Amino acid sequence: MQNRNRGPIKSSMLGAILAAVAVGAVISVSVTRMAGQAPATRSLRTVDDKPNFSGIWQTNNEAHWDLEPHAARPGSVMQEGIYPYPYAKVPAAPVVALGAAAGVPGSLGVVQGDGEIPYTPAAETIKRENSEHWIDRDPELKCYLPGIPRAMYMPYPFKITQSTNKIHMAYAFANAARTIHLDDVERPPDYTYMGHSVGRWEGDTLVVDVDYFNGKNWFDRAGNFHSEALRLEERFTAISPDLIQYDVTIDDSNVFTRPWRISMPLYRRVEPNMQLLEYRCTEFAEEFNYGHLRKEPLVTLWEGETMIVNITRKVPEGDALYDWYRK
Amino acid sequence: MRARILTLVGVGLVVVVGLVGSTQVGLMGQTAGTQADASLRTPWGEPDLQGIWTEEFDTPLERQERYGNREFFTDEEYAEADNERARLLAEQSTGEGDRRSAPGSQNDVAGAYSNAHLSFKHLGRRTSLIVDPPNGRLPALTPEAQALANTEREWRRALLRSTETCELGLRACSGQEYDPTPSPRRDEPAPRYNTGRMNRHDDPEDGAFGDRCLLGHITPSETAFGGNFRRIIQTQGGITMYYDQGQGQGFQRSIVMDGSPHLPETIRQWFGDSRAQWDGDTLVIDVTNFSPKQDFMGSRENLHLVERWTRTGPDTIEYEVTIEDPTVWVQPWIVRQELRKQIEQENRIYYEPRCHEGNYGFPALLKGARLNEEAYAAGTGPHPATFDNATGSGIQRFPGSR
Fold this sequence. Notes:
heterodimer; A: alpha+beta; Lipocalin; nine-stranded mixed β-barrel; two-stranded antiparallel sheet; 19% helix; disordered N terminus; B: alpha+beta; eleven-stranded mixed sheet; 8 helices
């Protein structure tokens, strides 16, 4: 069995050298720890001399809430309190029962440059409406396929299986997956949620072009969105055996005035017993999607020991699914 | 190496198209001998199971008794059985014998499928998927499994008793006597967590898994016309499988290969917990920890599978699975299949469109039930229990019922 365990640094790569200077100490620790971790010892490089990305990964940031810089807020769904100021809103009925667990953590954002997504004026309006109607519009809440890049930074782990002609990414959320084709294959017969991923290696960086989207995905829970014209260039660069720098250039002339870029690290889940568990949310979202169609709806009034929350679901105009069966 | 594999796949397809009858026998003989072929190994030296794989033939789960303990048809038997099957399918597609096709009848518009618009696989060379017990028949159910199945069947039939289906004595009524008074059993919960179609749509849980987009199982689930495609990708010491099943109800299967034990008993999953290791050139996967909601022919949380995946040739994998559940069957049983490699470049495995994102049918079913109730309450419609919204499909989903 071949096992070209050459260590984490390929000396010809300038980027890798710089990275090595920055995180050299971390790498040493990491390699030592891994070496002690029999029986499933993982090579640092594959037989075709690429960084070995196989394993389970996850981001550790707030991008899934909002790609753009944002202060923490008290609720993922908010309403006006006693003041008219936007900064003085309070949690609204759908989340008030969850108290401090329903807030949104702050973040400096992951959008490179000035931190703002360059929407066209018309798209900016749609984005704002999306965020105001988050519960009704966000496809994540319905357990729809998350799309790329969103699947990469949702708060769930994903597993990379790296072969020589394919690299597979399996996401815990919704049992979703994508195959990155390093070889030449036909496109799917129709536009997709998860896109069509074609990859190539540029030195130690995996570069993936993704397109063929159906335009039904969002980027985050803040209403950031795109159209079917979305094209991505993802770059996966090994910083250490347990750290990948993940950069995405996002281009969609229907929605944005220019291409823009997000950047974040992906962290290896290094727990010895780490494995991908299911999050089969098609089932979890049934009450959300269909609960109001029960003969006797379960949720109309929630009574706790100290509060009563009345939850009445009003579906807004313009939701294709609800409009269809309202007829 | 890649070009060579593609050529071999191409040759394989020509053979299949030209000589459906005789190919399989040749392939059967190929087992084991070809495993040493370096082209069937990954660049890192493990047996290469990678690619898109499916069962290209239609094989009944159980063997007809007249074939005794024989795993394969003789050439004469095969020709006769395949022709007879083709004749029956053609008869159905022209309407003669198609029970749904009387124009204007309720059955005429109740089905989502018709034989005229489906292409069916040829019969395979195997007399049955089951190879053990040697007679190719399912082992007997345990008394408790039989009792539970009977209880459930009676309850489902009770929900049909006021429908036209029973009034007309149609087959789908399955012997239930017609009674215009709706059964009081309509208010009972299902005898166990529901997975199938019932003639009641009070709640999402009353929906069949197929209607809820919750089908999908790692057990063999091919149909006579439909595929069950698996994409296998390997890395050194690791493997992953994606299943394209049930018209958009495919799923990712996670497989652990680090030698660790199964998940704790408290963690249950729809697709179980798969622990794999190489046994020589065969990948052996032990699967336990199924969810009590998941169902395979009545087997739920106690289902235990031991799968053996062996690359037997340039475009074949032999798949064997031992199926065990002592609460359901009196003994374990074994299914064997030959999976065929599909052309990589054509990429014909679909992770989407998924059933769930386009599931307009299921909320419509629930909404329809609410509207029927409203109409009945307003005195403008019949009792909701007189509608049959359960038996119209005409497609029997489980391998055992083909």
